[in-house]
């Protein structure tokens, strides 16, 4: 049983430059994420990819009074992964209900169950955006009792100040920043 999991957070077309809700420089971490996926997969770790998977009328969209432009709508090109995933990767779709926002991959999904069922003790996290879905996923992973490591050369935030504060907060919560 793999004791480790790599969690690749929301590496989707809409979060890349040119997408609906771009993370500046988000595309620059694609090669690094792909390397980690290969390396962790080779050593037998469980590969998990979370995706933002919104219905077209999601509450987080501006037309419903939310903070974001419409992004990562289910089954559209903007929601596609931009990283290369192995066939046995576990895909976790989140924020799939019209009236509920979910930044964390654990929120409203069976992610914790899947990790525990697979014997995972340590989770390594990369992806976007550092101060939103990466932050929320890492903090929830700590709460669920996992040892949590952030692969800091393979995450990207939307705003540098917010990203810095999120890193400090994660570290205080017990996330080890690598
Ligand atoms: C995200 C904003 C809106 C993220 C998702 O993946 O960090 N950010 N939806
Ligand atoms: Zn979203």
Shape estimate: globular
Strands, total number: 6
Task: Name every ligand kind in the structure.
Answer: pyrazine-2-carboxylic acid, zinc ion
CATH-level-2 architecture: 3-Layer(aba) Sandwich
Q: What is the rounded distance between the termini? A: 24 Å
CATH class: Alpha Beta
Could you describe the 3D structure shown?
With 178 residues, the chain is α/β, with parallel strands linked by helices. It has a single domain, classed as Rossmann fold (3-Layer(aba) Sandwich), CATH 3.40.50. The chain has four helices and six strands; from the N terminus they run βαββαβαβαβ. It has a six-stranded parallel beta sheet with strand order 3-2-1-4-5-6, sandwiched between helices. Helix 1 (30-42) links the parallel strand 1 (4-9) and strand 2 (46-52). It is globular and about 45 Å long. Bound molecules: pyrazine-2-carboxylic acid and zinc ion. Zinc ion (ZN) is lined by residues 52, 54, 60, 71-72, 95.
Essential attributes:
178 residues, 6-stranded parallel sheet, single chain, 6 strands, alpha/beta, binds zinc ion, Rossmann fold, 4 helices, binds pyrazine-2-carboxylic acid
Short summary of the structure?
This protein is an alpha/beta fold.
List the helices and strands and how they pair.
Blueprint: E1 4-9, H1 30-42, E2 46-52, E3 90-94, H2 111-117, E4 122-128, H3 130-143, E5 147-156, H4 160-173, E6 176-177
Parallel strand pairs: 1-2, 1-4, 2-3, 4-5, 5-6
The structure holds pyrazine-2-carboxylic acid and zinc ion (ZN).
